[in-house]
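Case study 2.
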Amino acid sequence: MHLLDTVKTTLSHAMKRLDNLPTGFVILAGAILLILVGILDHATRYELSFSVFYLIPIALVSRRGRTQAAVVISVMAAITWLIADFASGHPYSHPLLPPWNTLVRLVFFLIVSISLVRMRFMIESLKALTQTDLLTGIGNSTGFRERAQVEMERSARYRRPFTMAYLDLDNFKEINDTFGHSAGDDLLVNVAKILKDNFRNTDIIARLGGDEFCVLLPETRPKLAQRIISRFQIALSKELNHTERTVTASIGIVTFLSPPKSVDEMIQKADRLMYQAKNSGKNRTMFKTYPNVG
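Prediction:
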């Protein structure tokens, strides 16, 4: 079992690295691999079939999820196979057999490659669905944790700080109790929209559950974080005043000069600071750095 887990982990890391490579490089690598397969096919003559090996570069390129690239590599595979057949001296009883075989192979390759492209698209769509909060349209806890892990690793690698803000709506339960859950849902949707409008495209925004939201700001030191979050607070205050409802926000903001041990630890530190703000009278914002620099 340990060996199997090791193999699975190795393959998973290899696939992630492959997905991070530029598409042009992957297509070039696929074309080179096709040529190598064709050379081996020619060297072993037509008695030994190499058909399955032509699918390897096709699968490699089709994983990128690009239909045009999948079509191009499929055409290249069919032509390479045809050239290898002729070069190896494969006899044909009729001159129309080579083009017919090439057409059949091409259709087969196209079916496989386009199916892989569609499968990649479906997997990405399902993944996006599982990482999105259905009510507000922003990220959910699962999506946030995955993206936050990537950002923490990047922060450790390049020694760049980042900031985590944890937000909880004060008196939100009163909205549900007084005006109904639909009014509460509308308010959550509006808060999510304000978050998206007032933070950067590179920031990671999510609803962790209930009336709790969080934002991770990559490469952001305390002063910049305070300016960005202050802008958000002004927009949020206008929205909440517009609704004429007694809802405010308590926010805990931690700037990590070096990343914590885990995403859970990162969330816990910001969460604890948020509760300090809430217990200090609500509608407050508390800032802290980690490690503490005084």
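The chain has two domains: 2-129, 141-290.
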